[in-house]
Design goal:
Elements (H helix, E strand, L loop, with lengths): L2 H15 L6 H4 L16 H11 L1 H20 L6 E7 L14 E10 L4 H67 L5 H34 L32 H22 L5 E10 L4 E9 L9 H66 L5 H36 L10
Helix pairs in contact: 1-7, 3-5, 4-5, 5-6, 5-7, 5-9, 7-8, 8-9
Length: 430
């Protein structure tokens, strides 16, 4: 068994019985989220704090967990007794026309669940509550990851908008150069029209890029139930997000593994309840009867036991056993899939980092140098306008590639951290 699985098994046991591995927002009452002050620049800490405290999906799952805990308490309560009052032999005919010969019986009845049914039902309800907490932890982890990815998407969108603004400014500067050359007779008038159309198109792209930023802002705020994103744009240094080492995997479980284990435990508890149903319950009654004719009283005692002649609940127990086997297989599949996802994520992080390094160290400087040379060459009449426009296009594309690579590196790092339970997905902030 791998260290990954060994650690998972250990934590699974602790999770199922102690609940220590369940994330805090899912294990108890949630405090009201503190609203982000208007104009506050977003950070990863702020975003994760908001989704942990205010995510509607997480809060709903947490409330469901509390409901299941209440059901577990209810399942452990004994059955209520029954009190009965019975009057016989009255309002008939002949000597039974009145109440002179009536018989009145007052009794109390209590059903006793044999075979440990009540204890097993309570354990099954408690296992279902543990499953609810594990399901909430999965939703929390997924919401945290989604929020982190949206944050870096927002950062990238903001960088793209800034780049669009810079590209539009470069187009305006080039338009001035083209206009001067046309006035001096060094360039044909169509070049000015071409440069003007190009500058207008790039300026229009700025508005599109800004709209994309606003869309990401609203998407992010919606994760914690806000309809008005009053926060400022992210203030994040790329270098602050270091690459988690593959060997930093700690022997602790992922919420999906905990949920799979909790589901298996819940199905096993249900199987125990079904098996306990083999034993019939015992109902005991006792009472007092008054004879109106003689004025005398008598006690009575009764016992009632159902006869499991046709239905012994064996089919339900067998079905519950099949579900236990299915959940055991599911847990093994979840462990294997997460281990595979971890290895893929490690490779993706390394590839994204190498790609970013190559773009920043080679592609972007070369594109910038080519553009600067083309602008100078065009002003001196050495290059045509097409060459200059192509060089600027190459610079923009290289800059966009750097932004995309940076976003991909952050995203893949977040996915890896989410899988291995590293900060900020270990309950702590960076």
């Amino acid at each position: 068994m791998s260290k990954f699985r060994q650690g998972a098994v250990c934590i699974l046991i602790a999770t199922a019985f102690a609940g220590g591995a369940i994330a805090a927002p899912c294990s108890g009452p949630q405090a009201d989220a503190q609203a982000i002050a208007p104009g506050t620049p977003l950070t990863l800490d702020i975003v994760l704090e908001q989704v942990r405290d205010a995510s509607p999906d997480v809060r709903r799952a947490a409330l469901e967990t509390r409901a299941r805990k209440a059901e577990a308490v209810q399942a452990g309560r004994p059955l209520n007794p029954s009190i009965g009052l019975e009057v016989e032999n009255f309002s008939g005919s002949g000597p039974l026309a009145g109440f002179d010969q009536s018989e009145t019986t007052l009794s109390i009845e209590q059903t006793f669940q044999l075979g440990g049914k009540r204890t097993k039902r309570q354990k099954a309800a408690q296992a279902n509550a543990t499953l609810g907490a594990a399901e909430c932890a999965v939703i929390l982890r997924e919401t945290e990851l989604e929020a982190a990815l949206l944050l870096y998407d927002l950062l990238a969108a903001s960088q793209v908008a800034d780049l669009a603004e810079q590209a539009a400014d470069l187009a305006d500067t080039l338009l001035e150069t083209v206009s001067k050359r046309v006035e001096a007779g060094a360039a044909a008038p169509p070049e000015q029209s071409r440069a003007l159309a190009d500058a207008a198109a790039l300026r229009a792209a700025v508005y599109q890029a800004r709209a994309a930023v606003e869309l990401k802002r609203y998407d992010l705020a919606a994760l914690w139930g806000s309809s008005e994103p009053q926060f400022a744009l992210p203030d994040i240094d790329r270098t602050a997000l270091s690459e988690p080492r593959s060997e930093s995997v700690r022997e602790e479980t992922h919420p999906q593994i905990a949920m799979a284990a909790a589901s298996e435990s819940a199905r096993r508890a249900e199987r125990d309840v079904a098996r306990a149903s083999f034993m019939p319950d015992l109902t005991v009654s006792a009472g007092i009867r008054q004879f109106e004719e003689s004025g005398e009283n008598a006690f009575l005692v009764g016992v009632r036991v159902p006869v499991p002649l046709f239905d012994q609940n064996r089919d339900a127990a067998r079905a519950a056993g099949y579900r236990v086997d299915a959940e055991r297989l599911n847990r093994l599949v979840v462990e294997a899939n997460l281990l595979a996802s971890q290895r893929v994520a490690v490779a993706q992080v390394r590839a994204a980092r190498e790609r970013l390094t190559l773009l920043e160290d080679a592609a972007l400087p070369a594109a910038r140098s080519a553009y600067d040379a083309s602008v100078q060459g065009y002003a001196a009449g050495k290059f045509d306008l097409t060459t200059t426009l192509d060089a600027r296009k190459g610079l923009i594309e290289a800059s966009m590639a750097v932004i995309a690579a940076n976003r991909d590196l952050n995203a893949e790092s977040m996915r890896l951290r989410s899988i291995i339970g590293a900060a900020p997905f270990d309950g702590d902030f960076q």
